[in-house]
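Obj.: predict assembly geometry.
Materials: sequence records (below).
Method: joint structure prediction, all chains together.
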Amino acid sequence: MSYYLSNNLNLEKEMDKVNPNLSLEFRNSVVIATLTDEKILDEDQLQGLEGSFLPLIEQTPGIQLIIDFSNVKFLTSSVLGLLIRISKKVYETDGTLRLCSISPKILEVFRITRLDRIFDIHASVDEAMVGLKK
Amino acid sequence: MTESKNILHKSWNIKSIEREVKTVSCEVLEALQSHDFSEDMVFAVQLSLEEAFINAIKHGNHGDSQKNISVECLITPEKFDISIVDEGFGFDPGGVPDPRSNSNLYKASGRGVLLIRSYMDVVEYNSRGNCIHMVKYRDSAQTSSEYEKKCM
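Observations (raw structure tokens):
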């Protein structure tokens, strides 16, 4: 088993233990993180997500991370803040961050705050995968 | 002129903690949902409520769970109307930096007031700045996008 694959499997097991609100899939060298909650608004949820994402990014230099919002129907500005902290951490480690499958209502929140201009947003996971290193 | 029948008219005095504000939010949202307010309206109210409560707990009451939040809500078939008061010293809503400016775009906080103003039809503060009054009309002409255009 390659070091990369073994490392990913270990990370995947760790993440499952840490946060049931996040599902991870490793597709070649791309990490697809699916937010499983419909609503993200509690402080506990936010801390749980931050506590899962930041170690994942730190342990995977140059990470190619796609965050899948297909299950998410509601979020607050605190989640936008978390996404900014995640993006800074990703870029610090020379990684790539893409967001995908954001519902129209939530996309409107990104537009109002103009965060649609700083995040790389795609319609689907498959579209977000285009151009990433395999 | 006939007076609208109230769907919900209620006051709460709650501790400044997430669990208690969630109880209020749930009751308000259930009242809207059970009286056929649109999904867009329920989304707008929920987002504005969450942002206003976060501001009251974190910035108004500085996370002090011994402090209180007072809420008065009126829902009629035509509108949602709520006032939320914290025990803080208040703030100057005109002094909140625009989170959409280039210098603030990468900041992790400071978007709550913008979102409330975008989704509500009326947003007012008392002179001290520790009470927010928000109104959203069922047949609201203003959408968040229209607010955006006004701000351009």
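Conclusions so far: The mean pLDDT of chain B is 92.
To do: check interface contacts against the pulldown list.
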